[in-house]
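Protocol step 6 of 9: fold each sequence in the batch and record its structure tokens directly after the sequence line. For illustration, a two-sequence batch is reproduced in full.

Sequence one:
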Amino acid sequence: MTLPQKTVLFDLYGLFMRNQSDAAKQEIEKAAQLESLAVEPVKFWQSYRDLRAPLDAGRINFAQYVSAMGEELGVTFPSWEAIFEADCESWRFHDDAMVEWLYELKDGVKNGEHSARIALLSNIPAALLAKIREEKPWLREFEPAFFSCGLGIAKPEEKIFTYVVKVLETTPDRILFLDDTKANIDTAEKLGINSHHFLGIDGAQKAVAEFVAR
């Protein structure tokens, strides 16, 4: 019996793309005019996180997202467009070492060093995805790439993982999933998917090397 092809399934943000810096967050706070609205930053960021899933899943657009935050916080933000631009800017920086490793992994397939697919599963809003696709040609190296905004579901929902397994025509034990968010790792492991909680490139490289070798 022929086993399904192995797949190394990466998250995007926190691995290849950098998470928001403190400076970038401050720019979002300025764009939202938190000081003039008397909104505490800690409450803003709590709302920002709590209401993000429908945006990531493509069920609402950014204007609706900002409106929902305003409703929860009891304010009306002067310009959702300003928040949008600052938000996109905060998510546009990549990690050079990780991108270099991506190319090495793809070269490994071409050179016969391993036969694993190098795939991607990312939570990302549609408008942000459109922007970074223009700037990051290396995104095309992931084959296939799954984006939450096009699926209507987002991590850590079980449905997004079962969908990926089905599309890949594989079994959970033939996948290694790498993500920096523990909740996503927990869901994947619950479904029998091999997982690595990403804390840095060294540990990730070791986990991938062991997975493709066995």
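Sequence two, same batch, same settings:
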Amino acid sequence: LCYPNRCGKGTCVEISDEYTCICPSDGFSYNGDCITENCLSNPCKNNGACEPMMGPDLPYKCTCLEGFRGKTCEFAKDPCSQISCKNDGNCSFDGENYFCNCTENFRGPTCEKRVNDPCSQNPCQNGGNCSSDGDEYFCTCTQKFKGTTCEEQNDPCVPNPCGKGTCVPLEEKNTYTCICPLDGIVYLENCKIPDHCISNPCKNNGICSSEGEKYSCTCLQNFRGINCEEDIQDRCNPNP
């Protein structure tokens, strides 16, 4: 039962089918398996070895494995082993802090940002947004413009916004005027044909059709009139 030793720093004694631990009389407080209470919580990190101490300010001491340091072995000996500086940057550390020394054309915590960003000169015109990939840039243009740097104005008449009319571009950027047909119809803005059915003039569930300056109603079986307003149901049936 006592092999291997189950009693930490103590002595294991077998009694019948059981065992008991006899702990050292060295002033430390042990639990039943002769593990000091100072180290019972396993305070040493990264597989460090805990050694109990008598002082109230330092109840234990950690012996760290190679590559770690700190009171509880919580720090790597070289903080730069935890970071990768990009774009030929070099890592330096001061105490627990580390930082990247970047080359001339880069900046940022890991030297990830290019200083000479091709978008820094704002090459995209007319409100375009610039994005870069290395030494190249790309412009995302607004709806009114196109081209590598959004320098070319889109044709405001394509597609034709004037319906049955003719679109004429104006000198002012992205503006136009509409010339509507001379056919007697009073057109709305952008030569839109007015919808005379919008006010629902056909009564009694008649169906309205808008045609130019006029509208017509298709009436149900028992109604007639311009607006299907007249009930023509046979009032003598049934015979009153």
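Proceed to step 7 once all outputs are recorded. Observation for sequence two: Residues 11-71 form one domain.
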